[in-house]
Amino acid sequence: MIVTDAVRSYLDETRPEPDALLAEMRERGARDSVPILDAHAAVLLNVLARAVGARRIVEVGTAIGVSTLHLARALPDDGELVSFEIDRERHTQALSYFARARLSARIDLRLQDAAEGLTELEGPFDVAFLDGLKAEYADHLELIVPLMRPGGLVAVDNVLMSGAVAEGRPIDGWSGDRIATARAFNDHFLAHPQLDGLITPVGDGIALAVRR
Ligand SMILES: C[S@@+](CC[C@H](N)C(=O)[O-])C[C@H]1O[C@@H](n2cnc3c(N)ncnc32)[C@H](O)[C@@H]1O
Hints:
By secondary structure, the chain is an alpha/beta fold. The chain has helices at residues 5-14, 20-31, 39-51, 66-72, 88-100, 114-118, 137-144, 164-167, 176-191, and strands at residues 56-60, 80-85, 107-111, 125-130, 148-156, 195-200, 206-211. The protein binds S-adenosylmethionine. S-adenosylmethionine binds at residues 35-37, 60-61, 63, 66-67, 84-87, 90, 113-115, 131-133, 136. One of its GO terms (molecular function) is methyltransferase activity.
């Protein structure tokens, strides 16, 4: 948790309830220890994707599809979302949730390593969301930036790691090595010559930037 308990409680009280499908997905994720984007951050992604008029979205790290669903719901009927996941069981579960959400037509869910898959994509994309292995963020970012249209939005999850990145000490299992990697990535992201952005304390820390 990055904000105070009181702020967190207030935000939770005022946030709209997820629909039945999303609630079921989150329950399953909690039961099976699947890491899933914070609920506020998920709504933020949906709002931002709609604000930039997204028609094409790329995501790294589908897991069982919670963030994917929020992003796909921001797309028009003829929109497209490409999402990469390397875990076969999670990929299969996500496919079945998207079918139930009647969103399969706009979600191209690839069971593939993102670094490999990103090299096969053609831009331009309007929104990119990075939520795979944290140690691979820098590689994924370098592959994604050239695919983004000018004005396109890049979002990255877990950049504050439960506060460990700011405090510089292990919290919630984030080790010293991972904190150092995260700090280096954050510096790189914020100084990137083709991006203008910032780090927000939403969820576990979301970095946001617009492609120049
Ligand atoms: C934090 S979870 C994603 C959560 C999801 N975005 C959500 O909020 O609902 C990270 C996922 O990335 C997948 N992953 C890790 N490295 C990957 C890679 N190189 N290519 C594709 N998927 C990867 C993991 O298997 C895991 O399911």
